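Input record, target 12 of the design panel.
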């Protein structure tokens, strides 16, 4: 069973550098060309299901603007 995850991008810190877009192995992050942050940048956002919560995007983000959430794996019953 594949892990499921999601990201939250803080628009106050995201400067639209697209490092997370390039680093995402699932190709589920893109810059939101329809919105601007308060600082005038196009922020990153999740564009599709398929995020595994691998955290690579958060690691490469130079402004620590990405928080990753992962679904807890279910424990097996004995």
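The sequence produced for target 12 reads:
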């Amino acid at each position: 069973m594949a892990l499921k995850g999601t990201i939250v991008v803080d628009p106050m810190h995201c400067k639209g550098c697209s490092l997370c877009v390039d680093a995402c192995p699932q190709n589920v992050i893109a810059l939101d060309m329809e919105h601007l942050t308060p600082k005038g940048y196009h922020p990153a956002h999740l564009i599709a299901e398929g995020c595994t919560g691998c955290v690579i995007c958060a690691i490469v983000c130079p402004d620590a603007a990405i928080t990753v959430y992962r679904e807890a794996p279910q424990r097996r019953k004995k």
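The beta strands are 5-9, 29-31, 44-46, 66-70.
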